[in-house]
Write a structure and sequence with these properties.
By secondary structure, the chain is an alpha/beta fold. Helices cover 22% and strands 26% of the residues.
């Protein structure tokens, strides 16, 4: 019937395939040497573990695509995807570039938002409590700063706020001509950023 599956497994003298890793919400019975499962098919187990963190699936929403998460809760099931990365977070709020900053083209669009964000402290106070209520949502914070010290301060603030599993470093953003652009194109500075942020992370 619609929405149901009947999947054969190895039976007596018959090889009906292997459903290892798949989940079913139904009953099992034997029919002519086949082990048959009926019920609604839930799909394969997509869980993966990366850097000690378990994700429901390898699908991760990139930074900026779902804002701070809570804005898209009616559109995207954040507890169904593997994880999502927050919009970049800086030490202080940033207004971004003046309009116009999004232009439609024949091939899509161009943007120069300019790293607009509410700042890490406002994120912790206003957004993070709502994210913690979303069971199963795995949150990775995107960290931005014009200097390495800026990034360390953002991480220090997030360390004391439960609900963040890992950090992503915004080491090279094309929408600014200083700060992170310099760090991301200089191997020594980039090493210092990664080493410093790794040491500061809890």
């Amino acid at each position: 019937t619609a929405g149901e599956s009947a999947v054969g497994e190895r039976g007596t003298g018959v090889d009906g395939g292997d459903s290892s890793g798949d989940e079913f919400d139904g009953e099992r019975f034997r029919k002519g040497g086949w082990a048959v499962t009926t019920g609604r098919y839930k799909g394969p187990d997509m869980h993966v573990t990366v850097a000690g963190v378990e994700f429901r699936s390898p699908v991760i929403a990139a930074s900026g695509t779902v804002g701070y998460g809570v804005e898209f809760e009616d559109i995207v099931s954040l507890d169904r995807i593997g994880s999502f990365l927050t919009k970049w977070l800086s030490r202080e709020p940033m207004g971004g570039n003046p309009a116009p900053r999004i232009i439609e083209t024949a091939a899509g669009m161009m943007n120069a938002i300019g790293l607009q964000n509410m700042g890490v402290r406002a994120f912790i106070e206003e957004k993070l409590p709502k994210l913690r209520k979303m069971t199963g949502a795995v949150v990775i914070a995107n960290v931005f700063g014009y200097t390495i010290e800026d990034c360390l301060e953002v991480i220090a603030a997030l360390n004391d706020a439960p609900g963040i599993v890992r950090y992503e470093l915004n080491a090279r953003c094309p929408n600014t001509s200083h700060g992170v652009m310099v760090i991301g194109t200089d191997a020594e500075l980039l090493f210092g950023l990664v080493a410093g942020c790794t040491a500061a992370s809890k």
